[in-house]
């Protein structure tokens, strides 16, 4: 089953499950209970921490849930905040998920040190739900912006072309 966030990120071949981790967790759980998919493949856009370029397409089976404040010792978490279905995580590009978009490019180095190259608001929840149902899962992401002060402006200006390219890639 192909899924996507929905709204401005809607693909004709994918079922929308919501924007952000909370909506995805609720809606994908309902979908898994009703449809019982054999495989889940998420498609969406992502911001780059600097090493992936605009319109690069990245496939991944690994996600993290790290907030920016973690890197400045302003927060901690008692949960395991990395989840993967990959056999060799060391070769994976990790996708970070948060309900916030990173706009401080000085934080990018901390993510890159942990092999986290892109961020997408939904993917961590997708992996958590799929894992809880024992469903294999993967995702493909197209970079629309860098995680900097221009993130939103660049996302908007690159979004249409990114959607077209990702749709073509998935054919």
Structural notes for this entry:
With 171 residues, the chain is an alpha/beta fold. It has one domain (2-170): Nucleoside phosphorylase domain (Rossmann fold, 3-Layer(aba) Sandwich). The chain is 31% helix and 24% strand. It contains four helices and nine strands; from the N terminus they run E-E-H-E-E-E-E-E-H-E-H-E-H. The protein has helices spanning 20-35, 108-113, 123-133, 151-170, and strands at 2-4, 15-16, 40-48, 57-60, 62-64, 82-84, 94-96, 116-119, 137-146. Strands 1, 2, 3, 4, 5, 6, 7, 8 and 9 form a nine-stranded mixed β-sheet that branches. Helix 1 packs parallel to helix 3 (123-133). The chain starts with a strand and ends with a helix.
Short description:
The protein has a single domain, classed as Rossmann fold (3-Layer(aba) Sandwich), CATH 3.40.50.1580.
The main β sheet shows up as: 9 strands, mixed
Order of helices and strands: EEHEEEEEHEHEH
* Share of helical residues: 25-40%
- Structural class call reads alpha/beta
């Amino acid at each position: 089953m192909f899924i996507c966030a929905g709204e401005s990120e809607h693909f004709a071949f994918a079922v929308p499950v919501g924007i952000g981790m909370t909506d995805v967790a609720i809606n994908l759980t309902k979908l898994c209970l009703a449809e019982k998919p054999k495989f889940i493949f998420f498609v969406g856009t992502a911001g780059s921490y600097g090493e992936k370029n605009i319109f690069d397409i990245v496939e991944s089976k690994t996600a993290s849930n790290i907030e920016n404040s973690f890197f400045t010792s302003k927060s901690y978490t008692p949960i395991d905040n990395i989840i993967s279905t990959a056999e060799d995580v060391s070769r994976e590009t990790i996708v970070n998920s948060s309900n916030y978009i990173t706009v401080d490019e000085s934080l990018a180095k901390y993510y890159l040190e942990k092999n986290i190259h892109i961020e997408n608001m939904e993917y961590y929840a997708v992996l958590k739900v799929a894992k809880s149902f024992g469903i294999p899962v993967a995702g493909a992401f197209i970079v629309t912006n860098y995680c900097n002060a221009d993130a939103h402006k660049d996302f908007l200006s690159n979004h249409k072309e990114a959607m077209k390219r990702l749709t073509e890639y998935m054919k």
